[in-house]
Amino acid sequence: MIALLLRDLRLAFRAGGGFGLGLGFFLVLAVLVPLGVGSDPRTLALIAPGILWIGALLACLLSLDRMFALDHEDGSLDLLATAPIPLEGVVAVKALAHWLTTGLPLVLMAPLLGVLLNLPGAAYGWLIMSLLLGTPALSVIGAFGAALTVGLKRGGLLLSILVLPLYIPTLIYGAEVVIRGAQGLDTTTPLLLLAGITAGSAAILPFAAALALRVNLR
Amino acid sequence: MSNGSLWEYANPVKFMRLSGQVLPWVAGLAAACVVGGLFWGFFLTPDDFRQGSTVKIIFLHVPAALVAINAWVMMLVASLVWLIRRHHVAALAAKAAAPVGAVMTVIGLFTGAVWGQPMWGTWWVWDPRLTAFLILFLFYLGYIALWSAIEDAETAADLTAVLCLVGTVFAVLSRYAAFFWSQGLHQGASLSLQPGTRMDWAYKAPLYVCMAGFTLLFLALLLAGTRTEIRARRSRALMIRERMAA
Amino acid sequence: MPDLGAYTVEVSLAYLGSLGLLGGLTLWVWLRGRRVRADLDLIENRSERNRHG
Q: Is residue B48 classed as helix, strand or coil in its secondary structure?
């Protein structure tokens, strides 16, 4: 399992592996938003939590379709399906690799973009905390969507229609944590709910994703 | 399964025979209830002292919302039946229900917007109920998109069923999240129209007729759609057999 | 036509729009059903002929 994780990480970091693409997208989005809504610091401060969370969401989405697609094309997914480790474990490891190469860098970069968007000082800690707790859910939910669409020729667009609605609860609680943090309000409830979503997704969705993969490999 | 259990109707041939007999009656009753109920609601109900004539929109709004939610519940049950017992009729029924549910969701949203315009002064407000309903529509879209994207019938049935199960969990989570979210920003709920609370029988009676009518209409469209899907699948099977023979 | 007062436009819009959607949906289901049924009849006849001829 660790070997699989290392292999996935190596593939992602290699040229053309897509690492950095999500980060670049995140940065471009943070630059485009002020250009679109104006440079008024108060407006930006107001919408910064939401923009950062939506940016993280979309950046995550960007690299989802290659989670299983490459392995599916070269046949290594069939090997993984018959390997001694359960397919659920494979899915979990793949989601973890996706999080390490997409989610974690987003978490680290978000505060910098927060500066660009004039995020209030009190919110930075909550931004990092909420992204740390929330982005794993994005990767696991994304793994489920990628498993559903793995056999399809043009699965990318379909994937976004399937996955983005599933991201709604994570987005709501995640952004709420940052908004409340920025206003100096109590963030315990949305933070706990966010953690609940992540824990629940990580516990259940690998099974659904493995089921979908088995159907697709049939 | 044998001796007359419910599962027998999951057999396509039996289903076709029975649904062929039942469909005209359900369709006729649905037409009668929908036309009758809406006629009653539109022409024969008094104006509300506060809402004026916009109260008549309730006869469209509430039944459509009722069917929109129950269509999804029916899809969930059918998906479970397909996954557990592999009855093809169940999978096809879930497929046939989705467009009906989606249109009902649109009707619910549309009539709500038209009612909201004079009552709240805006076509759309991010009230948790409205938001949850809009999210339900997104889930319908995703479900329909997945069905139409996959060529192999059995694979499509399996994957959409899994999506339906996971989607249900997340749709429910989204609903609670929407209520939480809206509460966090403003005091919403006071705007919501609450049907059933101290409503006069002059409104309640036609509303019940409309609710029955919309439910029957859903059943009729569901039966007709499922029959179509069964026929389409048989066509495909025959075509494949022809090609193999040639 | 009942007197809808100040909300004539809204109420008629709601009824016309919804009935249009319901009618469109029913028509779509019906037409698709007819087309698929015709296709199936065609194919069944053809395969029947092939088997005997």
A: strand
Helix axes A104-116, A21-37, angle to 10 degrees: 20
H/E element, A105 = helix A104-116
B132-147 pLDDT per residue, tens = 889 999 999 999 999 9
With beta carbons less than 8 A apart as the criterion, state whether B83 and B43 touch: no
Sorted by sequence, the CB contacts under 8 Å of residue B129 that are 6+ apart come out as: B192
Q: Which of A128, A133, A139 is nearest to A12 (CA)?
A: A139
The CA radius of gyration of chain A, in Å to the nearest whole number, is: 18
CA torsion angle A136 A139 A145 A148 (round to 10): -100
Give Cβ neighbours of residue B54 (< 8 Å, ≥ 6 apart).
Answer: B48, B115, B118, B119, C7, C10, C11
Q: Which chain B residue has its CA at the smallest distance from A169's CA?
A: B174
Q: Of B221, B243, B244, which to mutate for an interface test with C (greatest number of C Cβ within 10 Å)?
A: B221
Of the candidates A191, A209, A9, which has an alpha carbon nearest to the alpha carbon of residue A99? Answer: A9
Q: How far is B54 from chain C (nearest CA, A)?
A: 6
ipTM: 0.89
Domain ranges within chain B, ordered by starting residue: 46-245
Query: What residues of chain B lie within 8 A of the CB of C38, using their CB?
Result: none
* Number of neighbours of residue B236 by Cβ within 10 angstroms: 14
Can you give the pTM of this predicted structure?
0.89
What distance in Å separates residue A13's CA from the closest CA in chain B?
Answer: 31
Kindly compute the dihedral angle of the four CA atoms of residues B99, B101, B104, B106, in this order, to the nearest 10 degrees.
Answer: -70
**Cβ separation A165–B167 shorter than 8 A:** yes
Q: Do A165 and B149 touch (CB under 8 A)?
A: no
Whether A127 and A111 have beta carbons less than 8 Å apart is answered as: yes
User: Contact A170/A153 with Cβ under 8 angstroms?
Assistant: no
B129, B69 Cβ separation under 8 angstroms:
no
Structure tokens at B195: 């049907």
Give tens-digit pLDDT for A8-20: 777 777 655 566 7
In whole angstroms, give the CA distance from residue A174 to residue A186: 14
Nearest chain A residue to B171 by CA: give it.
A166
Contacts of B100 in chain C (CB under 8 A): 25, 29
